[in-house]
């Protein structure tokens, strides 16, 4: 909603047919000066989504202008070590601690954890599910529950009849609160660490422990294999054999100093 309110200043007086490439480029320039190219991209992506829906679903437009996004540098994936995760869980208030532990155990996105209902959980079969309209990719997700996830659910039994995670009787819609940032500081973790980075942590732990990327894609409910390739560099064990093929050549030189040319 905040993005729509900001865009309304520049688009609210225009017809859809008047939203031209020049108009969009001007908005991109303003938002970049105000914040950053990466933040401007979030607004441009919203404009693009609205225009595409107006053309493809509502048939209000025959054609739409191309929305050019700024190129963003690919940053490092931030994930917690097990020790960092333990420190953070120890510092979080109880309601956030339970949610964070469940996120680390399942890889579910924050909204899927926040609004998880008991009717979506089968404790006997140790599985939960996310409905298509709740999933980012628009596809249902089956969530196998490991021991850590089941332990959290058992502690939550009887707390609320409808939702698994609540605080003062309501689902916790926002997790990146002052309490979250304060816990990060006490745990010695940079305050830029986001709740969504718990999902990156879950995926990174899986890959580091040998989970194949194809299985990770299914576990995480990603729509494309490209989305999980960001974690591929954490699983280089399968290349160890290839890396060792030059060992003989290297060692034969270092073990026979007479054969090494003096500099």
From TrEMBL:
Pfam families in UniProt: Phage_integrase
Keyword DNA-binding: yes
InterPro entries recorded: CB (IPR044068), DNA_brk_join_enz (IPR011010), Integrase-like_cat_sf (IPR013762), Integrase_catalytic (IPR002104), Integrase_recombinase_N (IPR010998), Tyrosine_recombinase_XerCD (IPR050090)
Sorted UniProt keywords: DNA integration, DNA recombination, DNA-binding
Domain Tyr recombinase: 75-244
Residue ranges constituting the Core-binding (CB) domain according to the UniProt record: 1-55
Keyword Chloroplast: no
Family: Belongs to the 'phage' integrase family.
Protein name: Site-specific integrase
Organism this protein belongs to: Cognatiluteimonas sedimenti
Source organism phylogeny: Bacteria, Pseudomonadati, Pseudomonadota, Gammaproteobacteria, Lysobacterales
